[in-house]
Design a protein that fits this description.
InterPro entries: ABC3_permease_C (IPR003838), Lipoprotein-release_system (IPR051447), MacB_PCD (IPR025857). The chain has about 400 residues and is of the alpha+beta class. It has helices at about 5-15, 20-60, 80-85, 150-155, 200-205, 215-220, 240-250, 260, 265-290, 290-300, 305-310, 315-355, 375-400, and strands at about 65-70, 75, 90-105, 110-115, 130-135, 145-150, 165-170, 185-200, 210, 225, 230-235, 255-260. It folds into two domains: about 5-55 and about 265-405, no CATH class; about 60-260, no CATH class.
């Protein structure tokens, strides 16, 4: 066994004296353990929240979304769409027309986004992570049906069991038709039967109504123009590789985004919050490590005679420094090991049994989601090592300056 580590470990395990220094060392160890466990648990919760957000958005958004790089819409000719469908890895291609519209049901009105989708929209596995009320169906040409977000349905007080009242949709016409004195000529109007409600995430629930693409195309007078194309990737294919193939085919006139890129802002926000939480808890861990600094400082004073004897026997300053640095390392790493184990089992228990509830009755998940990533354990351990070294360096340096002639 290394000599410096042997002496440091003996100091840590010594049972001959249970004085204040020993108590302070144990308190330091407990402080490091609590700080380490808190880091692991909080970082795992952020990972779980990030995965939850991704899964909720993925229930509504496409795996790959194609939009015009400039402008609001683009012409989608049948032959061009077939070229995209023939790209290796593309399983389902859904045409989309999306815009704002005014909705009216009985005496209630609400401004929301109408999203017209082709018939294969539901083949992309939508709403797997959400709740559905009613029947997911877009009806027929003689009786088009809409799928409403639960929030929109609440604002409009929509009743799915009412076979009489229909959902009225109003969309303003082009400015050139504004010269008429008839108000009815200023907007297009059409009717839909509410068929189902969906609940995925509040942003979508409160703002979206889905309808057949031919219905929205007629209402908005879009013809063959589309605002987006949504792609479902064939099972077993790599999404990034399919995205690269689509970019090569479409060129610079179109943007091709995966699910994460479609919501880059909110995911970036979660990552930034996670970073600041890590820095904040690391700072708290550094404050807790002050106990290591004080315990080592007092240990250096208590063991001054022992240090002088070792120096007289030929011990170098580097050996004395290593003894106290490793003493601090033993305290901190023991606490860190305990903290990592406690954090791991706490996260495991939360994941398996949902001990801590979100407390939100309308939430898709009942308890806080957690996801453990090995890099979080690695960075936590590295943070503990760095903080321990900084806390132990000064007492070790002071102890190494002891001279036998001073004792």
């Amino acid at each position: 066994m290394n000599l410096s580590f042997f002496i440091a470990y003996r100091y840590f395990k010594s049972k001959k004296k249970r004085n204040f220094i020993t108590v302070l060392s144990r308190i330091s160890m407990v402080g490091v353990a609590v700080g380490t466990a808190a880091l692991v648990i909080v970082l795992s919760v952020f990972n779980g929240l990030e995965d939850l957000v991704k899964s909720l958005y993925a229930s509504f958004d496409a795996e790959i979304k194609i939009e015009a790089a400039k402008g609001k819409s683009f012409l989608a000719e049948p032959n061009w769409l077939k070229e995209i469908e023939s790209v290796e890895g593309v399983e389902v291609l859904t045409e989309v027309i999306e815009d704002n519209a005014l909705f009216r049901y009985r005496d209630y009105q609400h401004l929301a986004r109408i999203k017209g989708v082709s018939d294969n929209y539901l083949q992309q596995g939508r709403f797997e992570k959400g709740y559905i009320w009613g029947q997911l169906d877009f009806g027929s040409e003689t009786r088009p049906m809409a799928i409403l977000g639960r929030g929109v349905a609440f604002f409009l007080s929509v009743d799915l069991d009412n076979p009489v009242d229909l959902l009225q949709v109003y969309y303003p016409k082009a400015p050139r038709s504004a010269g008429t004195i008839d108000p009815n000529q200023l907007y297009s109007r059409a009717s839909l039967k509410p068929g189902a409600f969906f609940s995925v995430e509040k942003e979508f629930d409160d703002n979206y109504i889905l309808a057949p693409i031919w219905f929205v195309s007629d209402l908005l007078n879009y013809g063959q123009k589309r605002t987006a194309l949504e792609v479902k990737v064939r099972e077993g294919e790599n999404i990034q590789q399919v995205k690269t193939r689509l970019k090569t085919l479409l060129g610079n006139d179109f943007t091709v985004k995966d699910t994460d890129e479609q919501h880059a802002e909110i995911l970036r926000t979660i990552k930034i919050e996670k970073l600041f939480v890590f820095l904040t808890l690391s700072f708290i861990l550094a404050v807790a490590s002050f106990n290591i600094f004080f315990s080592l400082s007092m240990l250096a004073i208590e063991k001054k005679k022992d240090t002088a004897v070792m120096v007289a026997m030929g011990a170098r300053q580097s050996l004395i420094r290593k003894i106290y640095l490793k003493q601090g390392a033993v305290i901190a790493l023991t606490g860190a090991a305990i903290g990592l184990v406690v954090g791991f089992f706490t996260c495991w228990a939360q994941d398996q049994f949902g001990i801590v509830s979100l407390g939100i009755a309308s939430s898709i998940v009942e308890s806080y989601p957690v996801k453990m990533i090995w890099t979080d354990f690695l960075w936590t351990t590295l943070a503990v090592i760095a903080i321990t070294f900084l806390a132990s360096f000064r007492p070790a340096w002071i102890a190494s300056k002891v001279r036998p002639t001073e004792i």
